[in-house]
Each structure stands twice: as C-alpha cells, then as structure tokens.
Request: fold
Amino acid sequence: MNWHLLPLSEIVQLLNTTPSGIDAVTASEHLREHGKNQIEDKKKKTILQMLLHQLLDFMILILITAAVISGILGDVTDAVIILAIVVINAFVGFIQEYRAEKAMEALKNMVANHARILREGKMIDTPASDLVPGDVVVLEAGNIIPADVRFFETHQVKVDESALTGESNNVEKNPEELSAGDYPLGDRANMGYKGTSITSGRALAYVVATGMNTELGNIAKMIQTDETTTPLQKRLTAFGKRLSVTILIICTVIFLIGWLRGESVLTMLITSISLAVAAIPEALPALVTIALAFGAKKLAKSNALIRKLPAVETLGSVTYICSDKTGTLTLNKMTVQEIFETSDTKYDAVFAESNMLLHIMALNNDVSKEENGKWLGDSTEVALVQYAFDKNLNRADLELKFPRIAELPFDSKRKCMTTIHQIENPAADQSTAIIVITKGAVDVLFDKLNVDQKSLIPEFELKVNEMAEKGYRVLGYAMKILPSLPENLDADEIETELTLIGFAGMIDPPREEARQAVTECKEAGIIPVMITGDHKLTAKAIAEKLGIISTDEDLVLTGPELTALTQIEFINIVEKVKVYARVNPEQKLRIINALQSKNHFVAMTGDGVNDAPALKNADIGIAMGINGTEVSKEASHMILLDDNFATIVVAIKHGRKIFDNILKFIKYIMTGNSGEIWAIFLAPFFGLPIPLLAIHILWINLVTDGLPGLALASEPSESNIMKRPPRNPKENIFSNGMAIHILWVGFLMGAVTIGMQAWAIHSANTHWQTMAFTVLCFSQLGHVIIIRSGTQSIFKIGFFSNKPMLGALTITIILQFTIIYTPFFNEVFKTQPLTIYELLLTLAASSIIFCSGEFEKWIKNRNK
Ligand code: ATP
Reply:
C-alpha cells in the first residue's frame, strides 16, 4: 500500500482510527487480523529439527549401525542398551539445545522495546510487539520507531534512517501529503519506518504496518545477524573440530591395535566409536550458551539486563569503566546550595521587584507540575525552579505576565538552553518587548556575553571556581531585551550579546555505593573513569570524593583540551586521565579508540541519542534503564535497570564467576574424557584387555560426566574473584595450566584404572572389569570436587558450599551402586557385585586423583 501518497483523511478511514487512537476492542481485532508486531526469526529450528540434529550426527549414526549389526549377529542386550543410551544422550542434548533456545528467547523478551501510544485519547506505555495498524504512536527524540507509521503531527522531527537506507544524514519529516510519483523510501518525508530512530523533535503518527509487513520485515532475512555466538563458543567450536580429528585418529589406532590383538572387529568398532562419541565434546557450545543465558537471567535480578549474550562472557575482561557522572556516579538529586547575582543593573526595570536572578530562574525552566504538587522533569531543572519557588517566585504566576513565545531547548552539545518571553507592559516605542533568557554551562555563556561584560569575565571566573571547587554544578544565567521576536530562531543568532545576571551552584551528592564500587574496581585491576559535561573543577571535586582521583598523577582533561590533542598525543596520556570534563558525547568515541589502541577492554555508559556510536563501539556498551533513550538502549550490550555505577561492578563480578564456572566445567569434562582415552589406549601396551565395554564408556559420558558437571554452574564465586586482574579476552582458555591439567590428571586417571585392572587380573579376580569401571567413575567424582576451586583447598571452601553438587554426587553414586549391585543391571551392564574389600580398594585407588588434585593446589599456593 502506498501510504505516503494517501491523504490523511483516507488513512484514518482505512485504518478505522482517529487522532486520539483506537479503543481496546478494535485493537484486539486488529491484533487478531495482523498478528504481533514482531520480526520473525527465520533461523529458528523446530523441535523436530532439534531432535533430528542430535540423532543425525555422523558418529552417532555409525554407532547405531554398528550396534544394530552386533545385535543381529548375536548380542541383542548389548545392542539394545547402546541404542537406549544413545537415544537418552540425544534427548539430553536436545533438552540442552531447547533450554538454550528458550533462555535466549526469554532474554530477548526481557529487553523488549516499549512504545507510547494513544488509546481513546489516553497515553499508555505498551510493549512494541502489541502495536496494531491504526494505533497512534507518540514519538520523541531518542525513540526507535516501533512500526511503519504515517506522521500526522510533527515538531522539528528528524529521523536517522541509516539502518534501513544506509543514508547517514538525518531526514526531516512532516505530515504533508506527497504528490503522485515514485518515491524511494528515503524520500517519503511523511513516513517513519520500523527500526529507524528519532534524533530530534516530537511527533504523532498512525501505525500503518506492523511486524513482517513493515519495510524492515521485508528485508529482515537479509539483516538477521548472528549475535548470539560468543567468542568462547567460536573458539570452542573451532577447537572441537581439531579435537574431533585427533580423537578419531586415536580411536582408529585403538581399533587397529585391538583388532591386531585378536579382538572381534565388531566389538572393537563399537568400543572405539563409543569412545569417540563420548570423548568428542560436541555439546560444549550449547552448554556454554545455557550457562551464559542462565547467568544473564541472574544478572537481570541484580539490575543488569544483558542485551547481547557475549557480554556475559566478556564482562570479566573489562579493564576500564568509563562512566557518566550524573545519575550513575551521583544520585541525580540536585539542590541549589547558593546563588550569586552580578551587580549589572542594565535590565533592572524589567521586573518590578529587585531579585532579577530568581525571576529568570523561574522563567527559564522546563518542568511541569504534577497534580500532587511534585515537579516533573530533569533534576537540574527541578532544583532551580524549586529554589525560586521557595523564595516566593512561582513560575506559573510569572508566566502569566511573561508568557513564553519561543524556545531553544537544552542540548548537551550546546550545553545551554534559551527561553523567549513577551513582556507584559512593553515600552511605548516597543524597544523592550521581548526577553531572551539563556541558562547554561558558565564557560559557554562567557563566550556569549556583550562587550561591556567581557572584561569582567576573570572576576566571574573566580566566583565560579570557588563554587565548582566545592563540587557544585554551576549554571550561569544571562539575558537580553529585543524589540521583537527574531524570524530566524537560530541559536548562533539569538544566544549572543547577552548580559550575565548571575550563577546558581547546586550539589548532586555522590552515590555512597559508587564509592565502594570504585574501591572494588581498583582492587580488581579495573580503572574507573568519569565522563561528564560538567565543569572541570566540579568534576574533579566529585571524582576525589568518589576515589576516582586518588593521586597527583591522575589527570583531568576537558573536551576542548582533548580536541587540541592529536590522537598520538592523546594515546600517550590516555591511561593517566581519570576524569573527562566538558566533553561532548561524540568525544566518547575518541576515548574508546585511544583506550582500545592500548589494548584495553572498555565498558562505556551512555544515555542519549548521541551516545549510540560510543555504546556500539565500546567492548561493553552500557545504557541507562531509567534515564536512557531507546536509541542508546538499542545500541548497548547491557542495560542498567537502576542507572547505578555499582551495578556495573556487580555485573563484572558475576561475569567473572560465570566464566570461571564455564572453564571449570570444560576442565572437568575434558579431563574425564582424557582419562577414558588414556585407559583404553594404554591397556594394550601393558598386555591388558580393553578395560571398559562400550556401554561403560557411554554410561560414564552420560551420568558421571553429565550430572556433577552441570552442578559446577552453581559454584559460588571464589573469594579472590575481585582481587585478581581482568582476564585477557584474547587469552587461550587452555593456557594457564588447563591443557596440562587435562593431560596429566587424565593420564593419572587412566593409569590408576588400568593399574587396578592389572592388579585384579594378576590376582585372578574375575571382577576386574567392574573394578576398573568403578575406579574410573569414582576418580571423576573425586576430580569434580577438587575442581570446584582452582586455588583453594576443598577443606577451605567446604564440602557443603555447593548444594546442587552434593545432590549430583549423591545421585551419581546411587546410580553407580545400582548398576553394580542389582542383578538386572548386572546383566545389562555386564557388571558384577563387588565385595566390600573390592569396593574399598576401588575407593582407595580413585582417591589418588582427589589427593593429587589437592596436592597440585598446595604446590601452586606454596610457590606463590
Ligand atoms: P553527565 O555527567 O552524565 O555527562 P551532565 O548533566 O554533566 O551529565 P549534560 O546533560 O550533557 O551532561 O550537560 C552538560 C552541561 O550542560 C552541564 O554540565 C551543565 O553545565 C549544562 N546543563 C545541564 N543541564 C542543563 C539545563 N537543564 N539547562 C542549561 N544547562 C544545562
């Protein structure tokens, strides 16, 4: 439908709507007819596809074929049990993949966009997915357009359509009907498209298309990117491929040796393939997704909402946190502490009473008053209007006498705002008809003063510095009188030739918890940096209170100083700068680039539309949940639901723990696999038969590896987690001794297993196979206990500090006893009940792994 060519009256008719929106009944009808306003994920697998994916694995297929052949040739029980285990394994794999998928979906839903719409004239906030054609959306700067819309009321609206058209310039929008013709998307000035964002102004618009019917829906297939694969998963997948080849070679060797030693071909085939199936850790990437997605769920409870899964993994690598000041490091609760009025008397006649500064404080203000008498709006604005109000200057009364006729809204780049008012009783010659009041950052105002006052600037600066050194945010007020409202409302023309009236100094106290979080950061090798639009001295005073600046070496750099530096000069000092004052959001990108070029891993906060590029380019872009615009949220990796700096540090701590536990899990699984391979590979070299049957291998893989391995995810964080430096994101996960551990502990497991086997065979014990099998199982359990901490002894962290682990160990032991001591399973698993003596022997042998693991930690700690 060519919505852009239709007159608004026709659109209203077609959509069965009105400028005040539709009613709930029509909305639900439209919802039924058009479906949810969602872009469908084409890549989503169905349940059947997920199940088949598990079963149609090449190795699994060969194993099934071999088991069926062996069943036909005679050993039916063996074949059935292998098939059963393979099916259970596939089912567990399916559940894991399904859970990973569901967890990802839940994550997506948590960060769903919201939209403000009118329904029967009332403004409501609703999930963007509930929008239907006919809805009226209320849009303002910072909003992402939630569906395809036709504007019917606009106020200086500009839209960034680069997501859709690739065009980087912002496009102006208006409600006018277009004359007939062919218009590419970028030229349809009366339309807004889903996924593009409003960069300035505000507007009302009719939703004309939703979900897959939008332009974004049309190209959705093209732009669906895979944002869910994390660096670790990529590395594991690549590593898994290489490992698979190695394991396949080892298994082929095992097969050939066994065959040459005279074992049956089929038995050797099944054993070696079972070993390959068990040892190739193909489920690892899915398990990592689960661990990360569940980690993300926990993080949400701590007020950190993860938008991109890799962030959970990379949080632990953050070396720099660059944080906005207002609201994140401070409470964003401003109160005016003192004001200072200049002695300029030029405009004394404008207001009847003498307190000129208070008058203009009340007039140049953008707050509204709620019914219950509370001010609503930016905290700076609230503080200023409240101060004037307390001194008996009420904005509402004043506005009757000096009505606002125009304004230049606050802009963090200009760092000031202007309101223009009509004077109630202008002079007869109309020379004093209009007041222009500008308020803003003092240094910005100084540049806008009239020539008479320029010479007084050093004097003003002394006063400002005195206030700023106390940590006050100082705003200046200036004004001028004009005969008429200028035609061109351009800031450069209007905000000139001003007369400074005075300053207001207000305080925004630092957050107590931020101070503690700063200390914690420093201990954890993370450098906190404050970025603010505020004055250098104000920023410095607050940074000192928070502990961000603690030595004389720590630098404060202002935006203009930064502009004057070349990138090389900046890179040379960037690690010393702890505070950036008077910076524009655009400069954040430069800060990130400089830090990254020094190999730092940067987390950066942001809330405005202009912060989006910095948030995207930071290693972890953090948006504000309460005061952040949608555009900034969309560009971020993580959202702080409470806008609080301390939450970033909590998230980093969680991130480090989650990553630690994933590494522990990998270490556990791989060491176990290495143990099985060593045992089966080494046995023939000592003239021993293969110690384990295929079903034993598959059992260990399913039960002994699976249950306790999963419980490692519940491991509490280690006590030194925030006392050690950040992890290098490029570091190989197998460095730091992991590969060596996997090899030597695996070797020890294999050696103990075949040692037990050799001893039993030597003593003519017919239970040798069950003993070897049990030794391997119990060795793994001993191993999982020591792996719970990489550095601390289990006697220090306590056996009972991970309850799910206790449960998993108990169940595994019960299951192992069941297959050893019940006649039915003895048949099935070809096991024999062990005597107490044999059981104690196996326990003693397997405890070697536990003891040597503890010994390894002791040696490591002693060397430290
Ligand atoms: P942050 O510390 O998070 O960067 P900020 O409030 O310092 O936040 P901006 O909101 O970009 O950053 O403000 C920049 C500067 O503009 C402030 O330091 C102040 O001098 C001035 N300013 C802030 N709010 C207003 C306002 N409502 N009217 C006029 N000037 C303002």
